[in-house]
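Bug #77: duplicate submission created two jobs. Keeping one. Sequence:
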Amino acid sequence: MVQAAVGFQCPECTSARPQKVINSRHLFRGHGEVVVGKIIIGLNIAVFVLAALVSGDPNGTSGPVYEHGALNGFLVANGDWWRLLSSGFVHYGIFHLAGNMLLLWFLAQEMEPVLGRMRFALLYVTALIGGSLGVLILQPDAMTAGASGAVFGLMGGLIVLQLRAHQNPWNSGVAGLVLLNLLFSFVVPGISIGGHIGGLVAGAAAGLVLQPMSWPQQGAALRSTVVVGFAFTLGAFGLAASSYFLSNPLF
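Kept job's structure:
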């Protein structure tokens, strides 16, 4: 058996290619396997810097980047569909950005080498759209931004990966991290409950489809296609929710 990032795999099933084990010695060194994660982090930082420069606001919470990128049900219902995605790259200040990007970096190191670049990107985007759907259901009239919904989705996906690898998410700390962040979502004002729950559920669901029960990973293309369809379905529900829940609020 060969130790992998999320469990043990037989050499035959992994083409006899040992996988790098992620541990604390590697956290800040970067890895050649992590490409998509670095691109996503770079895009988030670039958007934040652009928002701050254009608006003159160091927090990036005003100006055209924020106004045209943040998620709002009224604006989505009026045709701004791109906000389902763009809102995941707009942040409320440097600490909001730093917290999300730091957690994204750790999760990318764990998951991208296992899933591969394309499937990791697909899981991230699916979780981002799922988080936007959650916002449009619970808080359609709010101006919401941040990558936390997608990051929650990565945590949900990682729990699935660990369970499939016969690991205990409580022992690894991932389950506790999710529980703690969910607690903060309900206790601390101003945090998007819908975004976090929506992203978590969407990411876990995508992980269930992307990661097979056993190795080798047969039918990967079909599973990825299913997740693409799932992401588009979430987006369609988001567009519908932006209109419906504005006129028929749940709370």
